[in-house]
Amino acid sequence: MAKRKVQRRMRTILGEDPTAMVWCEVHKRIPKPPADAHHAAGKGRLKPRHHWLLYVGAVAFFFVVVPMMLIDKLGDRLGGATPDRRSRSSRTASGGTSADGRPTTRDSERGERTDGVFDGDWDLSAGRLLLRWYTQSPNPKRLVLLAPGRVCLAASPRRRLSPTKADDFRIVAEYPSSEVRVDGETGQPRGFATFRLCFTDGSWLELGRLAEPADADSFLRHVAAGN
User: 0.85 cut: is pTM over it?
Assistant: First the structure.
């Protein structure tokens, strides 16, 4: 459950206790919007900012692990090892390029999709919210707060966030209950549960990666019962 200082912060920014809350994220990559829609929204970030340790790990991988792999592969070749034709053919069958260098069917069918994230219309409420998602906070986590008559999204300005200890989050979006409905079902597997913000203009945004299992279960029970 959320720690006391998180609960105190919620009461401070809302002016009352929320009826339900949960930490969540856009659980899939935000699709690339049309250039004009992105420009009109201020060309905000479409990806979260990562902690500096991630970049250190990437540098270590390319300058330490990759050279070791290349040295090991070179040693195999010098030792007379031959590639396994069957494994090569299986890789071709599962995707990549064919023998003549052309892309296989799986590669040619791969493309950007918007289903599973939002309804696909960048001019409606859900699309506009996505366009400013990381402008409001570089951290992917959002705290969805349900209070009488309104639905609020709060976020922390920090890149790294512990949902149970965060005490500096602020409201970054607020909607009256007459404009948005929260849809979710109970009984979803923990770690894979999702819910949707459904706006009256017909748009919707799906959120997942619900943090704190007890809070997630309570939140889904509340919205399933009709808020």
Answer: no
